[in-house]
Amino acid sequence: MSSGWEIRMSNSKGIPYYFNATTKESSWDAPSELSDEQIKSLPGAHHLSSGSSGGVETITASHLLVKHKDSRRPSSWKEANITRTKEEAIEILRGYQAQFGDSREKFEELANLHSDCSSHSQKGNLGPFAKGQMQKPFEEAAFALQVGEFSDITSTDSGVHIILRTA
């Protein structure tokens, strides 16, 4: 019985993802309905071991980004011309921080509504990444977190972020 799932390699991230040819659904995470044995027998399963044999550690994280006028690209899906200062962006993030506390669900809801990153439509989920794929301050903050832990405000060339490590 075919589940429709296969494993493909992401051209942009260079890491494997799951794709269902029947439903056209794709996911960074393994489909929950499949056992480890079923996953190992999927078409493209060789992609799962190709990157990890070199000891490349990947983590998965979500973030909530607030850009400011000095950001690398001071525009987003919700604002064509961002004019706020970095200090104002930090204040906005502090407000979001107070709203979500330690709730992943509330964080994802706020990221979906307010993040200046295109990942807002995935509730801030950036998918898996390895060292060297993100800006250094973001990478250092994300890799320092335990799964389920939130970062404090982290500043990069893109703006200011709160990061949630999800895997």
TrEMBL record:
Stretches assigned to the WW domain: 1-33
Its BP terms in the Gene Ontology are: regulation of macromolecule metabolic process; regulation of primary metabolic process
GO MF terms listed in the record are: peptidyl-prolyl cis-trans isomerase activity
UniProt cross-references to Gene3D superfamilies, sorted A to Z: 2.20.70.10, 3.10.50.40
**Cross-referenced SMART domains:** WW
Q: What class of enzyme is it?
A: isomerase
Q: Which Pfam families match?
A: Rotamase, WW
Span-the-membrane segments of this chain are none
Taking every annotated instance into account, which residue ranges of this chain make up the domain PpiC?
A: 56-167
Enumerate the residue ranges of region (Disordered). 29-55
Q: Name one GO cellular component term.
A: nucleus
Determine if Isomerase is one of this entry's keywords. Answer: yes
* Keyword field: Isomerase, Rotamase
Q: Which InterPro entries match?
A: PPIase_dom_sf (IPR046357), PPIase_Pin1 (IPR051370), PPIase_PpiC (IPR000297), WW_dom (IPR001202), WW_dom_sf (IPR036020)
What Enzyme Commission number does this protein have? Answer: 5.2.1.8
KW Signal (keyword) present: no
Catalyses which reaction(s) = [protein]-peptidylproline (omega=180) = [protein]-peptidylproline (omega=0)
Q: What is this protein called?
A: Peptidyl-prolyl cis-trans isomerase
> Organism source for this protein?
Rhizopogon vesiculosus
